[in-house]
Amino acid sequence: MPMKIVKYPHPALRHPAKPVSLIDAALRKIVAEMFQLMYEHHGLGLAAPQVALPYQVFVMNPTGDPEQREHEQVFINPELSDPKGLVEAEEGCLSFPDLYQKVRRAKEVRVQAYDAQGRLIDRVVTDLEARIVQHETDHLHGKLFIDYFSPGAKLSSRAILEAFEKEHRRAQERGELPSDAELIRQLQALEKEAIVVG
Ligand SMILES: [Zn+2]
């Protein structure tokens, strides 16, 4: 099945992803497809749960420009620490098309992870990169940017979120999307595959 970006409230978005135990050609193929999809949808980052894969992997290119491949970064099993400062800025998410709200994030954060060649990454990222890294790492833990909305932002997003929920249910009624229970079973089956540890 071709890889596809899932939209809120697909259960994959709330399902905590498992750490990757083997970085191999199969994983690098997933990563390449994720970059492709990210560029097609004009995103700056994309996390594996957004393509219904329950693995701790995300890709990022802060330029969003497929011509600038030198800015591509892959983060596997990322861990964040030492957050510093707070900045509020408008944020969107490919799983919530056309929804933008202000979200407060650390201005700077340390990220430790592995890249697609299995090399250790240990960096301090700031500003836009820090925002993307925090947003995408959240995805790996089933956390979404809507969780940070202020009461005012929640209120003004209510109609669009309800529309997403309605569309999700309709797709299930039309048989275009399996039930939530079946989608969760699919995620659990993927977790048992060789590239992850329980
Ligand atoms: Zn997102």
Please characterize this protein's 3D structure.
With 198 residues, the protein is of the alpha+beta class. It has a single domain (11-165), classed as Peptide deformylase (Peptide Deformylase, Alpha-Beta Complex), CATH 3.90.45.10. 33% of the residues lie in helices and 22% in strands. Strands 1-2-3-6-7 form a 5-stranded antiparallel β-sheet, with helices on both faces. A two-stranded antiparallel ribbon has the order 4-5. The chain is globular and about 45 Å long. It starts with 24 loop residues before the first helix and ends in a 7-residue tail after the last helix. The mean pLDDT is 95. Zinc ion binds next to α2.
Which descriptors apply to this entry?
4 helices, Peptide Deformylase, 198 residues, two-stranded antiparallel ribbon, globular, alpha+beta, single chain
Short description, anyone?
With 198 residues, the protein is of the alpha+beta class. The protein is built from four helices and seven strands, in the order αβββββββααα. The site of zinc ion has 5 residues, from α2.
What is the typical, i.e. mean, pLDDT?
95
SSE succession: HEEEEEEEHHH
CATH class label: Alpha Beta
CATH H-tier superfamily = Peptide deformylase
CATH architecture: Alpha-Beta Complex
User: Largest beta sheet: what is the strand line-up?
Assistant: 1-2-3-6-7
